[in-house]
């Protein structure tokens, strides 16, 4: 996988985006971006262990809990940097089962060298410290 994925192609080609750390609270950035993702025509899968449903979609406690027949193209991460490596590990385990390598996307202010290195070693494309909503609005 390329270390710097083509953002336009990644956003144009994606169909399903998992939002890790998706909040049910409308004032939270993760909620606003998840809603934007839906309005932009993507299937949004909320990942939050504390809720059963967010924005009308079934919420899953982890990436690992999402059924394997659901293709996840992008994993948009709203977690503190120290937790991103765990998200990457979950995505790699899922990729091993499904054969699909999702793009890992961390939001502005979220960067982890360890997570980036894990993703690259596992063949997962990785974008750090960027806002998916801003990039989508500008590029697609």
Structure in words:
The protein has one domain: 3-Layer(aba) Sandwich (Rossmann fold), CATH 3.40.50.720. It is an alpha/beta fold and 140 residues long. The protein is globular, with a radius of gyration of 13 Å. Helix 3 runs parallel beside helix 4 (113-121). The strands form 2 sheets. The protein has a 5-stranded parallel sheet with strand order 2-1-5-6-7, with helices on both faces. It has a two-stranded antiparallel ribbon with strand order 3-4. The chain contains 5 helices and 7 strands. The model has no long low-confidence stretch (mean pLDDT 94). The protein has helices at residues 7-13, 29-39, 81-98, 113-121, 132-139; strands spanning 16-20, 43-47, 53-54, 57-58, 74-77, 103-106, 126-127.
The number of domains is 1
Q: Provide a count of the helices.
A: 5
Q: What is the beta-strand fraction?
A: 15-25%
C-alpha-based Rg, rounded: 13 Å
CATH architecture: 3-Layer(aba) Sandwich
Shape: globular
Q: How many runs of DSSP E, i.e. beta strands?
A: 7
Determine the structural class based on helices, strands and strand pairing.
Answer: alpha/beta
**CATH topological fold name:** Rossmann fold
